[in-house]
Design brief:
Elements lengths: L2 E6 L4 H16 L3 E4 L1 H7 L5 E2 L7 E6 L1 H11 L6 E5 L9 E2 L3 H10 L7 E14 L2 E8 L2 E6 L6 E7 L2 E8 L1 E5 L7 H4 L12 E6 L9 E3 L5 E6 L4 E5 L2 E6 L4 E15 L5 H9 L5
Parallel strand pairs: 1-2, 1-4, 2-3, 4-5, 5-6
Antiparallel strand pairs: 7-8, 7-18, 9-12, 9-16, 10-11, 10-15, 12-13, 13-14, 15-18, 16-17
Length: about 280
């Protein structure tokens, strides 16, 4: 049986209303609808049951870009198409407006790829964390991994290898390693470049570096980045905005392009530079 997954912004009544509308649409077509336990409790519909969203045919994310990041994380690399419903300001990731969700579902249900919709595959990062010489975590990230100081008012020292060769030691507030999709997130706030999400590349951006070399670098996806915590201060490691680990001196983070992708569904042409233009209110030439 065809099944639909739901990921919702649990604290927005309009998101919960849209989720119930999606559930009713699916029920009328004899499709199953599943959500994780927390989303299920928030939605409060008898048409939705608890289940693994990584086993559905399509996942509907209702909220904004933050909900989209959580939806991608819940799939753990499974290339399940995601329909992103945007309820906030203009989203980079969620591109279906609330009033168009049923049109989008009908296009997915009755249409074909290349006709009614397109797949937009986005690069992911594979993030491995090593403490005391043992691997403690292996995580996928859509936007970025951030290695950042724990204590205010202090810098941290991070030794960086690129493509298995020593590069330099950063004295900075932290280091951002991002995908092209993540180039418009924290990296952009740290003055990093904006990359087209069609690219496959790894972007390395220091945060408030206390050194002459303060530039971002754009690397080929075949070049892994290894970061060792030096000095005596601990750091926090976050992926896509969520804290995943605290590291001590001698611990290591390894980042490389993942073989998995995040698969978004697009129902109309939406060029990346048009999104930027709308986001920043840029004028026509």
């Amino acid at each position: 049986m065809t099944s639909i997954g739901l990921a919702v912004h649990r604290f927005r009544p309009d998101a919960l209303t849209v989720a119930r509308t999606v559930a009713e649409w699916a029920h009328e077509r004899h499709m199953g609808v599943v959500a994780d336990e927390a989303d299920l409790a928030a939605i409060g519909s008898s048409l939705v049951v608890a289940g693994d969203v990584a086993s559905v045919d399509v996942l509907v994310s209702v909220g904004g870009d933050g909900t989209m990041l959580r939806a991608v994380r819940s799939l753990n690399g499974a290339a399940i198409p995601i329909i992103g419903v945007n309820l906030g300001m203009l989203g980079y990731l969620a591109n279906v407006e609330q009033e168009s969700i049923l049109d989008a579902l009908n296009a997915w249900h009755t249409g074909t790829e290349g006709g009614a919709f397109e797949y937009d595959d986005r690069m992911l990062l594979e993030v491995s964390i090593w403490t005391n010489g043992a691997r403690k975590a292996n995580i996928l990230a859509l936007n970025e991994v951030v290695i950042e100081k724990k204590e205010a008012g202090h810098t941290v020292r991070l030794g960086v290898d690129i493509d298995r060769a020593p590069f330099t030691t950063y004295a900075a507030d932290g280091l951002i390693i991002a995908t092209p999709t993540g180039s418009t997130a924290y990296s952009m706030s740290a003055r990093g470049p904006i990359l087209s999400p069609r690219l496959r590349a790894v972007l390395v951006t220091p945060v408030s570096p206390h050194m002459l070399f303060d530039r971002s670098m754009v690397l080929d996806p075949s070049e892994p980045v290894r970061v060792e915590v030096l000095g005596h201060r601990e750091v926090n490691v976050a992926t896509d905005g969520g804290l995943v680990h605290s590291l001590k001196p001698g611990d290591i983070v390894e980042v490389r392009a993942a073989k998995e992708v995040a698969r978004f569904m697009r129902f109309e042409e939406q060029r990346f530079h048009h999104v930027l233009k709308s986001k920043f209110g840029l004028n026509d030439r």
